[in-house]
Q: What sequence folds into this?
């Protein structure tokens, strides 16, 4: 399974963006996140083209939570997308990259007063209100600052997207948003319309992540357009923006067959137009927030293989081969969080005739299994392992567990590799540590 610009070169090495991964590992070290710039840009353009060719008003915002750095913000800006941020830190990253603030959408089920104040100060394009408490806080802040808050109300449409339970977000029992069916979302709209300084622009929903079928999107669109009609009926207000979030799945395994971006656009726009016409509603701006589907397949993580250990067990087949690598759950916690599965290969010798079923084990002090029971060529210490489709939620969720420095990130394109995140050092790990004076003096007084 080769993705994006990946190919096997004449040396039998995995190549990405015209760069030999063996050379990348030697130059930048491992673990190493490699990002395929051409693949990122291609997916950005596919979203814009697929939806804009079918619907007159579209706002595509990249979901920064999947992977955000200042360089990524620049790519997103150059491709004409907006940017969805979900914390003060993500917003700060966008600001440091000089991302146009009018194209920023600020998310989060708990935005502190400081984060809301930051968003207002920098005139972000939209704030997605997630609770009555946040609506009250915003009302107070706009009175205090004299700023205007342009908002969407985040709604829970009550849709089961049939994905892993930890990445469902649009069901009725959710920490996110306000219920459409129980009347909370409508109440929030009425409060927003009656609050000076708050400008109600529209409604938002997000039903889940890694979605491999389109019917859940269609059901969500129906619920949300019906809600638009109810808003008009009860308040007289028109919904200018209907944002249906992101969540389109990607290929982690060869058997994964996610819908194409074209298919997604066709199904969503067809349902949207039919429902709008049914209610005789004005066309709102259609907002989408793809993250994983833009960055996921563009990322590959390179690891150095260490010990290869055979463990004999009573059950068939009687032996398990553990292949230890120089990273694991600190640079990719997804297998531990929700049983995520990946495809891998030996990047330094992709072709061969000695396949073996192995378990890829991380180096952390847990049952740190990155990929169980996967078939690759028979590995030996010193080999280079490439794990595919690691662009989304790997770097962004990385930690310093066991005090491992977080990996570097390189951007590759047309044979050029450029560092966009430096590898952390041991000194970085202790930079914020402090020893109280009494401990430094050897006493406890």
A:
């Amino acid at each position: 399974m080769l993705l994006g610009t990946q190919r096997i070169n004449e040396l039998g090495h995995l190549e990405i963006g015209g760069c030999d991964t063996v050379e990348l590992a030697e130059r930048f070290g491992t673990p190493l996140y490699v990002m395929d710039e051409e693949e990122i840009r291609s997916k950005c353009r596919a979203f814009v083209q697929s939806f804009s060719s079918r619907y007159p008003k579209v706002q595509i915002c990249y979901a920064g939570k999947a992977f955000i750095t200042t360089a990524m913000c620049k790519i997103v800006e150059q491709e004409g997308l907006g940017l969805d941020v979900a914390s003060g830190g993500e917003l700060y990253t966008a600001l440091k990259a000089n991302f146009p603030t009018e194209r920023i959408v600020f998310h989060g089920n708990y935005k502190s007063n400081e984060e809301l104040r930051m968003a207002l100060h920098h005139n972000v394009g939209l704030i997605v209100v997630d609770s009555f408490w946040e609506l009250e806080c915003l009302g107070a802040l706009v009175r205090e600052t004299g700023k205007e808050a342009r908002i969407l109300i985040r709604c829970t449409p009550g849709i089961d997207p049939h994905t892993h339970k930890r990445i469902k977000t649009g069901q009725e029992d959710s920490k996110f948003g306000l219920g459409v069916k129980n009347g909370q979302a409508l109440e929030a709209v009425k409060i927003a319309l009656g609050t000076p300084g708050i400008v109600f622009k529209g409604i938002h929903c997000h039903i889940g992540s890694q979605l491999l079928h389109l019917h859940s999107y269609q059901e969500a669109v129906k619920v949300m357009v019906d809600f638009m009609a109810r808003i008009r009926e009860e308040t007289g207000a028109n919904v200018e923006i209907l944002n249906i979030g992101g969540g389109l799945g990607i290929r982690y395994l060869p058997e994964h067959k996610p819908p194409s971006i074209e298919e997604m656009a066709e199904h969503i726009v067809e349902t949207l137009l039919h429902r709008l016409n049914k209610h005789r509603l004005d066309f709102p701006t259609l907002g989408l927030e793809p993250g994983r589907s833009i960055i996921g397949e563009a990322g590959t993580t390179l690891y150095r293989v260490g010990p290869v250990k055979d463990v004999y067990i009573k059950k068939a087949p009687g032996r398990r081969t553990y292949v230890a690598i120089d990273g694991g759950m600190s640079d990719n916690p997804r297998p531990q969080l929700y049983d995520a599965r990946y495809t891998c290969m030996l990047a330094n010798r992709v072709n061969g005739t000695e396949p073996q079923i192995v378990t890829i084990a991380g180096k952390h002090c847990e049952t740190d299994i990155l990929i169980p029971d996967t078939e690759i060529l028979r590995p030996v210490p010193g080999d280079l392992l490439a794990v595919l489709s690691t662009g989304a939620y790997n770097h962004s969720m990385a930690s310093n567990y066991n005090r491992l420095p977080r990996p570097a990130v390189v951007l590759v394109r047309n044979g050029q590799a450029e560092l966009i995140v430096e590898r952390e050092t041991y000194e970085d790990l202790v930079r914020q540590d402090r020893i109280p004076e009494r401990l430094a003096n050897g006493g406890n007084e």
Q: What stands out?
A: The domain at 7-35+297-430 is CATH 2.40.37.10 (Lyase, Ornithine Decarboxylase; Chain A, domain 1). Residues 168 and 208 are 4 Å apart (CA to CA).
